[in-house]
Amino acid sequence: MSMWLVLTVQVIWPGLCLAMQHYPTTWGHYDICKSQVYTDEGLTWDYMACQPEATDMTKYLKVTLDPPNITCGDPPETYCALENPYMCNNECDAATEELAHPPELMFDFEGRNPTTFWQSSSWRKYPKPLVVNITLSWNKTIELTDDIVITFESGRPEQMVLEKSLDYGRTWQPYQFYATDCLDAFTMEPKTVQELSQFTLLDIICTEEYSRGYVWKYDKTVRFEIKDRFALFAGPRLHNMASLYGQLDTTKNLRDFFTITDLRIRLLRPATGATMVDESNLSRYFYAISDIKVHGRCKCNLHANSCVFEKEKLSCECEHNTTGPDCGRCKRNYQGRAWSAGSYLPIPKGTANICVPNNISPVIRQNVSSLGVANRNQDCNCNPFGSESDHCNGTGFCKCKAGATGVKCHECLPGYLWDNGCKSRVCDNELLRCQNGGVCVNNVRCQCPPAFSGLLCEKPRCESEAGGCDPDSGQTPLSHSAFLLLLTSACVLLLTRL
Ligand SMILES: [Ca+2]
């Protein structure tokens, strides 16, 4: 038996080594991303989607204003407090650092007192609208993961639109309209995010939630509610993210909704705090923003774990032989099965569609031809156990059975074990642990202590009720009274020795 095994290994080994030359040894590790985490059960693997961590994205943006000279202070001017039109001693002077309010102050570290803020020049040209576009560009596709929060130092605008672009600013779509009176400003019925449902999540609404109360100091923020929208799928405390990810996986529109390359804040009418604009005191009216929060992550199509900022540019560190700013295509000389993004879901669905070298099939084909075996069906050498058939498809790929992976379906996804094909693992020392002291044997069975049975030794052999032994156990039931007798004898024995 052992001789046969040695012989078999000797026969297989050269072939295996030859095969390994074609594939990176870490092939299997590319299929998914995982990290070790501590839980109540000890050290386990946590499988996750292949994506960079979410972070503060304002560190990586470029801001542009339109009109470009709309920032206050050139020439210097004084402006009045909105809540007190007779207090007009605030100065803005672009040439003096302490009195300047450049756009960068919307993204600096906040927490200082007084706050730092960008400010526009005042509404001197009234009744011509005071319109300012603030464009935030990443030059990279990013996915939003938290609410966009804009904190105003002035009153919040009476009319404003938040817009997004997915094509680096060529086209724009509204994200949300904001007004003190939605019907008047945009002929839209006012709505709140709470009125949205799973079916209307992609609706663009006008909200009056963030335009009132210009003097109340806590009413300074304007929000675009990402988390409330996530909650429509993931539950109020976002406890069921799998449900959200499931939706994101299957619904491109939903994915795209949270994806942007640019944001544009269109300030259309400043806070006036009154029904009539006071034409004699237009220095009261301006925009000022102290902080903008944008939280998100690089979009890498689930083919990268990290995203780097180099030479003023974000780019995904693509894995799976993919390339491009968003890992959106295969590297040169590689090809994927019909290209698709990876998956947010955990295994087995969370398997990214890896790209494989183009030249594998031709190399093998030449060898086969030189041997005079021109059977096209065998060109791909699909593993007969791991693949659905030994024929490969039109693009030279094998169709793998559940659990199998690799170009020839010759390897197993995590959670599967090679045994004439990929069989679901019974046990391992990571996620599938034998219970009640059972020992995992070769990942295919748990060797259970006498009192337990079941695939993972999870079942007590004898239940407490009379005659309740597991009929499969084939063991004589150990009755309650017999057990007591045994225990008593043990105690007697122990006492005698003492
Ligand atoms: Ca600031």
From TrEMBL:
One of its GO terms (cellular component) is plasma membrane. Residues 1-19 form the signal peptide. SMART domains: EGF (SM00181), EGF_Lam (SM00180), LamNT (SM00136). The keyword Heme does not apply. InterPro entries: EGF, Laminin/Netrin_ECM, Laminin_N, LE_dom. Keywords: Cell membrane, Developmental protein, Differentiation, Disulfide bond, EGF-like domain, Glycoprotein, GPI-anchor, Laminin EGF-like domain, Lipoprotein, Membrane, Neurogenesis, Repeat, Signal. Involved in controlling patterning and neuronal circuit formation at the laminar, cellular, subcellular and synaptic levels. Promotes neurite outgrowth of both axons and dendrites. This is Netrin-G1. The lineage of its organism: Eukaryota, Metazoa, Chordata, Craniata, Vertebrata.
